[in-house]
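dude i think i finally got it to work??
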Amino acid sequence: MIENGKMGVLLIATSRFRALGADTPEGSYEKRKLAETDAFILSMKKFCTPVCPGPLYTREDLAAAMDLFQREKVDCIFALFLSWSEDFLWVRFLRDMPPIPILFASKIRDSIDFTNTESESDFVEYLSAGGLVGALEASGSVRRFDRPMLETAIGTLDELAAKAEDFCRAAMVRTKLRKSTFALMACYNEVMWSTYVDPYALFQKAGPELRFLSVATLTQEIDRIPEEDVKRACKMLSDRYEVLPDVDPDKFAASVRASIALENTGRNVGADMVVLNDVDPVLLTEVGLRPGFIPTPEGGDVPVVPEGDIGGGLAVYILRLLSGKPVSFIEPFHIDLPNNCFAGGHAGPNDYTDPAGKVLIARDVRFAKTSYKHAGAPFAWYLIPPGRKTMLHISQKDGSFQMVCGLVDGLPGRHFITSYSHGLFRPAEGELRPFFQKLLETGVTQHYGIVDGDYTAQLEVLARLMGFSFTRL
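look at this
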């Protein structure tokens, strides 16, 4: 499920106009501004939990609003001048509000509801419609204070709601990342130096705290898993998916047991994400396989990505927060020129729970001929379903982090790459060669998160809020 963010709503009015129009059928300026406030709140309730103290007129109103926003721990603030207003409230807000994402907006009315200003009611409506005056006045202070994480927007109510939705969802992810914990088991993948991430920079600039898990901890947890839990999970998987004839039942159980134990191990240390080096020789020697059924049938709260790539894990985690959907971890394998597409996927643990995908329980043939204890233990062999998808890459670059993302179309297909969850894809915008040429020129790694739907606008906002560079494919 997508978690809604909390958005503070800062609507600045003016005491000079407050009582004007009180004797008109349409009501006073204050009454009209309350109706406008209600319209903003109604539009925002579709995508967030708005926190709104009502129109602000005085310093006391502003102080109470800032206290409310901090007490409610809002993820961001939507700010707007309801008309021309004295800017002392806005300047105080910019000066005194602790750092927080702010979307400063100016609303364009769908229509102007007066023809002239001869009547008092029309004059009050004319004053009420003057939000552009206030916004332009406020824009100078925006630049003079130059606060981080402050963005501007202009549009109709519907257009501002759409921009506020992207902004709020990105801000919610930023908040979540700053509270999150990633766990690495047990080390980086030493054959892929390009995927290494500085844990201090991750904590400082992206948010998640990194903890280090040992294989010994996992093996101890494997020994603690009750037999009935393993049997129940195996039955649930067998009832849900086809089990290929050459799957060994004992190795199936061993893979399920290790998968449950891995989720438990992450959960026990409060991890929101486990980054597993699934090709670590110590893991394969001590456990005898790489866990193949994560998410487990009764788990799924601790996602796992392979090959020790924390940047890849961050991409998957962000897409999960934005979408509330299963996210695949892939690397592009090869370009298929005759069919104008590329194949992509990955070995090891991968989220296989999208009901639109196809799953077979199959042997991990890649390790079947090794001497590991459970060589050839099965996994959820997943075929990524068709549809428009967001493909996201995150890695460290130039002392900070970069996001690179684009849209691809998943194509119908069949299982054809043994021991790898996989799919076929085509760039949704442009051709294959420019798509990969831009990746090569940008300088990335091979790993990407991919999820059903278009989240590129929200990712672009998130990159700005976190100080990441952003490249759109």
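The domain at 180-472 is CATH 3.20.14 (L-fucose Isomerase; Chain A, domain 3).
im so relieved honestly
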